[in-house]
Amino acid sequence: MDKKDVPQDHGIFGQWHAICYVTDENGEYVRTTSSGWEPTNIANGIAWEFINEELAAVVEKVRKAELSPLAYYMKKHLMDVKMLSRYTGFASWRVKRHLKHRVFKGLDDATLQRYAAVFNITPEQMKDVP
């Protein structure tokens, strides 16, 4: 794609821009920015709608005490058990166990702090969903 043809369809990026590699007037590859491209904006919009629907379902399960608030923060930050395990240093089986509401309620402050640090919130905020 030529530099002059880079799409600038504002969308999901907001104030941010994506980096694209294009050819300049000399035919050499250079970096440039794009504020978006309509097909990408549509695809991302659909993906975020799906993610928000999943998040709403997790919130309902947390409120019914079927899952712990940890499940909400994982979904909100697009994390799975394996990823959260790596960030916290907890074994995957422990993270899975902490997804159970009754187990999560008994977690000590140090454990909550480790999770809260990953999500950049306070341990108190970890105890509930917004």
Descriptive report:
The protein is mainly alpha-helical and 130 residues long. The protein has two domains: 3-36, no CATH class; 40-126, 434 Repressor (Amino-terminal Domain), CATH 1.10.260. It is built from seven helices and two strands. It has helices at 38-63, 69-76, 81-88, 92-98, 101-105, 109-119, 123-126; strands spanning 18-23, 29-34. A hairpin with a 5-residue loop joins β1 and β2. α1 (38-63) runs antiparallel to α2 (69-76) and α3 crosses α4 (92-98). The mean pLDDT is 91.
- Mean pLDDT across all residues, rounded? 91
- CATH topology name of the largest domain, in short, is 434 Repressor (Amino-terminal Domain)
Structural shape: elongated
Our estimate of the beta-strand percent is 5-15%
What is the element string, with H for helices and E for strands?
Answer: EEHHHHHHH
Summarize this entry quickly.
The protein is mainly α. It has helices at residues 38-63, 69-76, 81-88, 92-98, 101-105, 109-119, 123-126, and strands at residues 18-23, 29-34. α1 packs antiparallel against α2 (69-76) and α3 (81-88) packs across α4 (92-98).
What are the key terms here?
130 residues; mainly alpha; 434 Repressor (Amino-terminal Domain)
Layout of SSEs?
Blueprint: E1 18-23, E2 29-34, H1 38-63, H2 69-76, H3 81-88, H4 92-98, H5 101-105, H6 109-119, H7 123-126
Antiparallel strand pairs: 1-2
Helix pairs in contact: 1-2, 3-4
